[in-house]
Design a protein that fits this description.
The complex is a heterodimer of chains A (113) and B (107). Chain A is mainly beta and 113 residues long. In chain A, 0% of the residues lie in helices and 57% in strands. In chain B, strand 7 and strand 8 form a beta hairpin. The chains are: A mainly beta (113), B mainly beta (107).
């Protein structure tokens, strides 16, 4: 299994809702990442998990809350988002942080209304 | 962090034409990857190429780490090659994306 699976593929949520994005990989990778991508821009790093511990938080607002329950699973909990948070959210994994190639999931396209 | 610049920003090709995309990076890197982002947003890994040359079908890539650049060659382009091509460089924990090249292949 050489892929990263993200669910859901599309999500529409209101500004008062709470929702979660899920990312799963079974490649034995020990580093997992969340990226945010706006239209016509490159992906921007949000969070890095290494061995299930948060190692990098790129000054992301607290309305985004990551969680890594085990080495295969990464969640992103969303609460009280703003319309400007609408974007493509991409999950990636690599063997270790900074080592080996990155594999990306197909993303969750989020719309906040 | 390092700067990763790609050129050209936009490229329109007739089907069957060849092209070269360039990626310059401002510092030494541990890892250099080329991705193709399709219209649905999926980032597809094309090459993991911190140095040297690799080929995969109509695509090939070369990274000259000492001169801090990488090239992606697309030969005999097809309409399915359309999309945005990103290079991304890793210098430790951080993975820096270039600004991308938007490629349109017309029949």
């Amino acid at each position: 299994d050489t892929e990263v699976t993200q669910t859901p593929k599309h999500l529409v949520m209101g500004m008062t809702n709470k929702k979660s994005l899920k990312c799963e990989q079974h490649m034995g990778h020990r580093a997992m990442y969340w990226y945010k991508q706006k239209a016509k821009k490159p992906p921007e790093l949000m969070f890095v998990y290494s061995y299930e511990k948060l190692s990098i938080n790129e000054s992301v607002p607290s309305r985004f809350s990551p969680e890594c329950p085990n080495s295969s699973l990464l969640n992103l909990h969303l609460h009280a988002l703003q319309p400007e948070d609408s974007a493509l959210y991409l999950c990636a994994s690599s063997r270790l942080t900074g080592l080996g190639g990155y594999t990306f999931g197909s993303g969750t396209r989020l719309t906040v209304v | 962090g390092i700067q990763v610049e790609q050129s050209p920003p936009d490229l329109i090709l007739q089907e069957g034409a060849n092209s070269t995309l360039r990626c310059n990076f401002s510092d030494s890197v541990n890892n250099l990857q080329w991705f193709h982002q399709n219209p649905w947003g999926q980032l597809i890994n094309l090459f993991y190429i911190p140095s040297g040359t690799k080929q995969n079908g109509r695509l090939s890539a070369t990274t000259v780490a000492t001169e801090r650049y990488s090239l992606l060659y697309i030969s005999s382009s097809q309409t399915t090659d359309s999309g945005v091509y990103f290079c991304a460089a890793n210098t430790g924990n951080q993975f820096y994306f270039g600004t991308g090249t938007s490629l349109t292949v017309i029949p």
